[in-house]
Amino acid sequence: MTLFSKEMAPVRRYKVVFYNAVKIILILAILSGCNSSTLRVTSSSQWDTPYLYILGVMQDAGFPQAGCLAPHCMPAWQDPELRRGATSLALIDPTAQKKYLFEATPDFPAQYYDLEVEAPDNQYELSGIFLTHAHIGHYSGLMFLGHEAMGATNIPVFTMPKMGQYLRENGPWSQLVSYQNILLQPLADAQPQDIDSIQVTPFLVPHRDEYSETVGYRIDGPNKSALFIPDINKWTAWETDLATLITTVDYALIDATFFDDQELPGRDMSKIPHPFVTESMDLLKDLSQHERTKIWFIHMNHTNPLLNPDSPQADRVNDAGFNIATEGLRLFL
């Protein structure tokens, strides 16, 4: 099965046209009195509401993955428009005219351009970057803020204690600190960080913590709230009950690195700590249909069949009432 096709590729040159078209559709929907909830917006006023904007949905190494010459990777080596970036969210606040990133990925240049199309620098200030942990797909994009690239000045980077220490004490990241390209802002477990009308709360999760702790985030806006847990070990390794937690928010973007234990032939996948999508669905199957629609699977390995929306596995997820995150998705807060 081919995971990707030309039609599925994110095409950046059409994003401005698409964004404006969506606005026109919303206005027409409101004027005609139709149910605009199908567009994930309830009124035109939500364009003044903070929202999450999905910039990437892949596991750390993106797609195609370095060294992958398998049939599912080859089309993307030959056609750059088929390539997809590591998991990253933008938090955009139209009222405060600020924007934030969750994760700084190796795909930072392209993702920051996509964010520029969505929320231009001349209207929205980049007011901070929230990091989850020190694995390559989640922080290495900070290098593009340095003097060899953007030459940024005092961009706030929100980190947990070990993550902040790692950046301060290890090159080349320490140079970003000493050159004041970034300004480290300390976070603490379960302690909210207020940013205008939004509250961001980190919480520790179990994961491979070679260089830093790992956190997920709860993001509370004026009207709705979201969970962001892109990386975690098996749900059973966490003291928090995921199903109960989901009932307290409106959206949950959760780890979907691998679909099931058959995804990597020749590998003992019992030794891979990520929760399989099938395990997550089984854990959450008793939630109501309304609660299941809150869930968006994200952070997918390049082998994950969910990347093909026409795959039987994607049909299985959708039929069960769950969602698969895609680039360009807006979740209003």
Report on this model:
The chain has 333 residues and is an alpha/beta fold. The chain has two domains: 32 residues; 284 residues, 4-Layer Sandwich (Metallo-beta-lactamase, Chain A), CATH 3.60.15.10. Helix content is 23%, strand content 20%. The strands form two sheets. The chain has a seven-stranded mixed β-sheet. Strand 7 and strand 8 form a beta hairpin. It starts with 14 loop residues before the first helix and ends with a strand.
Write the layout of secondary structure elements.
Layout: H1 15-32, E1 51-56, H2 74-78, E2 88-93, E3 98-102, H3 108-118, E4 125-130, H4 136-139, E5 155-159, H5 161-169, H6 173-178, E6 182-186, E7 193-195, E8 198-204, E9 215-220, E10 225-229, H7 242-246, E11 251-255, H8 277-283, H9 289-292, E12 295-298, H10 312-319, E13 323-324, E14 330-332
Could you list some keywords that capture this structure?
7-stranded mixed sheet, 23% helix, 333 residues, alpha/beta
CATH homologous superfamily (4th level) name of the largest domain: Ribonuclease Z/Hydroxyacylglutathione hydrolase-like
Strand order of the largest sheet: 6-5-4-3-2-1-14
Indicate the proportion of strand residues. 15-25%
Largest sheet: number of strands, sense, barrel closure: 7 strands, mixed
How many independent structural domains? 2
Task: Summarize model confidence as the mean pLDDT.
Answer: 88
Concise summary:
With 333 residues, the chain is an alpha/beta fold.
